[in-house]
Write a structure and sequence with these properties.
Elements lengths: L2 H15 L1 E5 L7 H10 L4 E5 L5 H11 L4 E5 L4 H10 L3 E3 L5 H9 L4 E2 L1 E2 L2 H9 L4 E4 L7 H9 L6 E4 L8 H5 L7 E3 L5 H6 L2 H15 L3
The chain binds 3-phosphoglyceric acid.
3-phosphoglyceric acid binds next to strand 9.
């Protein structure tokens, strides 16, 4: 696969998503009902973060049992994590930041990958490695929409998925920005709802968000 094809795939996945829930799964048995609840609410592109010991097994279970879900791996911190994501069958990878080592590994991999950036220099490193779709993290804490607009001045063609501090109240404002292809965040799957198995509540919240955010 060429780098251009990989980037096109990544952009298509993010544009189809509108909203990407950032999932932290503590118990592997929650993975499949959670993915089903999200998909039932119209949220199909999921980011399973490598933040818990069961994350890899959870992502594998979702991929095997919820084929409607497009499962990516988040919190990729190095080349080993990237290889893990590719091996388990993830459709994309995403990271909170990027080191030179990670950018090099991602450039050599055919896994669609969005590195994290928060500054112009980090964005320049991502672009130099061939990544024009980036996660802006932590988005609200790093200056919010004003900071995004400032970054888009010298880099008008970048595609952005902001995460960090995004929720029901501000998701629409972010999505109205021309460079924003999707927004990410944990608000659609609160830890308490996962813990208590409130799958119907998660579906209802997703359906409400998609109805108000996804262009017809
Ligand atoms: C992420 O990794 O993208 C963030 O943890 C999501 O931030 P949020 O919890 O503020 O949505």
């Amino acid at each position: 696969m060429t780098a251009a094809t990989r980037q096109e795939q990544l952009a298509a996945i993010f544009k189809s998503a509108t909203v990407i829930p950032v999932l932290t799964i503590e118990r592997v048995e929650d993975a499949v009902p959670l993915a089903r609840a999200l998909v039932a609410g119209g949220v199909r592109v999921l980011e399973v973060t490598l933040r818990t010991p069961v994350a890899v097994e959870a992502a594998k279970a979702m991929i095997a049992e919820v084929p409607e879900a497009i499962v990516g791996i988040g919190t990729i911190l190095n080349g080993d994590d990237l290889a893990k994501a590719r091996a388990l069958g993830a459709k994309f990878g995403i990271s909170p930041g990027a080191t030179p080592e990670l950018l090099k590994a991602a450039a050599a991999s055919d896994l669609p990958f969005a590195p994290g950036i928060a500054t112009a220099s980090e964005l320049m490193q991502a672009l130099a490695a061939g990544f024009d779709l980036v996660k802006f993290f932590p988005a609200e804490q790093s200056g919010g929409i004003k900071a995004l607009r400032a970054l888009a001045g010298p880099f008008p063609n970048i595609l952005i998925c902001p995460t960090g501090g995004i929720g029901e109240a501000n998701a629409a404002s972010w999505l109205a920005e021309p460079n924003v292809v999707a927004v990410g965040g944990s608000w659609l799957c609160p830890a308490a709802d996962i813990r208590s198995g409130n799958w119907a509540g998660i579906t209802a919240m997703c359906a409400r968000a998609m109805k108000s955010l996804k262009p017809a």
